[in-house]
TrEMBL record:
Transmembrane segments: none
Classification via Gene3D superfamilies: Glutaconate Coenzyme A-transferase
This protein's name: CoA transferase subunit A
Record has Transferase as a keyword: yes
A Gene Ontology molecular function term of the record: CoA-transferase activity
Length: 236
């Protein structure tokens, strides 16, 4: 059996990173993001990255760390409203942004992983999203052509994996991790726990190990909250 488990994030990414590369990154906000791998990408100093991710983290957390160090050239994203540095760089013309509807982004990654170079969707027809894209009519309705996404490397976060790389995501942390994992030549996963091969129920596996080339154990984690909302105490 091939040993997919590496001692740390830096060694798991060794030989994979280069300037100008295209990355897919799982996560939604701060939920299910590959924290250790993002830190290792930052520390590597690789630059001019194109990153496909639902969002760019928040200021100083997640992919926001790579924005702060100016290592990102282009973001392909759906939701970026919680990151002031993202906004500043975009408005200043320092960061190229390809906005993509959330469902379309997920399907573009799924399509890339399935070997589908493009697909037609009604989402975005008649809006700025459709600018410069082919429009085709099916049954009297207009659809726009969206390209599949296939990157050099995908970095994802899982909950539990076995030694073969079969992987389970935990609840909402599944989010974009699953489609991103298949949409790259090499998928590197960080997980909270690794168990012996055969320990996981085959019916419970979300991502087959054939997609996972390298793994690290990233635990323990601090559970970060983007917006902490508390209920005011009622007057006694």
């Amino acid at each position: 059996m091939v040993n997919k488990l590496y001692p740390d994030a830096a060694s798991a990414l060794e030989g994979l990173l280069f300037d100008g590369m295209h990355l897919c990154a799982g996560g939604f906000g701060l939920c299910g993001i590959p924290e250790r791998l993002i830190d290792a990408i930052r520390d590597s100093g690789v630059r001019d990255l194109t990153i496909a991710s639902n969002n760019a983290g928040v200021d100083g957390e997640g992919l926001g760390k790579l924005l702060r160090t100016r290592q990102v050239r282009k973001m392909i994203s759906s939701y970026v409203g919680e990151n002031k540095e993202f906004e500043r760089q975009y408005l200043a013309g320092e960061l190229e942004v390809e906005f993509c509807p959330q469902g379309t982004l997920a399907e573009r990654c799924r399509a890339g992983g399935a070997g589908i170079p493009g697909f037609y969707t009604r989402t975005g027809v008649g809006t700025a999203v459709a600018e410069g894209k082919e429009v085709k009519s099916f049954d009297g309705q207009d659809y726009i052509l969206e390209r599949g996404i296939f990157a050099d490397v995908a970095v994802i976060k899982g909950w539990k994996a076995d030694e073969s790389g079969n992987l389970i995501f935990r609840k909402t942390a599944r989010n974009f991790n699953q489609p991103m994992a298949t949409a790259a030549k090499i998928c590197v996963a960080e997980v909270e726990e690794v168990v012996p091969t055969g320990s996981l129920d085959p019916d419970a596996i979300h991502l087959p190990g054939i997609y996972v080339k390298r793994m690290i154990v990233g635990a323990p984690y601090d559970k970060k909250i983007e917006f902490r909302t508390v209920r005011q105490r009622e007057a006694v």
